[in-house]
Amino acid sequence: MKAPEFHILVCNSYRVAGDAQGYCNKNGAATLIPYILDECSSRGLDVAVSSTACLNVCSQGPVMVIHPNNWWFGKVTGEDVVDEILDALEEGEPCEKYLISE
After folding, report:
1. pLDDT over 70 for what percent of the chain?
2. Confidence (pLDDT) at 101
3. CA atoms within 13 A on the CB side of 53
């Protein structure tokens, strides 16, 4: 298996019991995953997208992380924000507007 160039993690607030009930989930993170998959495919980006357990930065949620760059983005509240982040990714740069950690 060839590893993808990027791995995008989307916090979906899963807890140990398996229930998604935290901030990111309640604020639409799950609805972003299909959009991210479709948009990356349309752009020809080689990515894997995963929904995660709580990433423990609820005050910045919804949160998205791009590896191997280790770019953490906060306030990923809709498709327009995802588009800005992916536009910057295509340029090889983090989207500074939503970057919360490098």
Report:
1. 92
2. 85
3. 4
Both tokens of 5, joined, read 């160039």
Q: Considering Cα of 32, then 28, then 81, then 94, what sign does the dihedral take? A: negative
* CATH for 17: 3.40.30.10
Domain that holds residue 39: 6-101
What pLDDT is recorded for position 23? 87
Q: Is the pTM of this model over 0.85?
A: yes
Q: How many domains does the chain have?
A: 1
CB-count exposure of residue 4 (10 Å: 0-12, 13-18, 19+)? middle
On the CB side of 54, how many CA atoms lie within 13 Å of its CA?
Answer: 16
* Digit-coded pLDDT (tens) for 1-36: 789 999 999 998 876 666 656 889 889 998 999 999
1 within a domain of the structure (yes/no)? no
Phi, then psi, of 86 in degrees rounded to 5? -70, -35
Nearest to 11 by CA among 48, 54, 66: 54
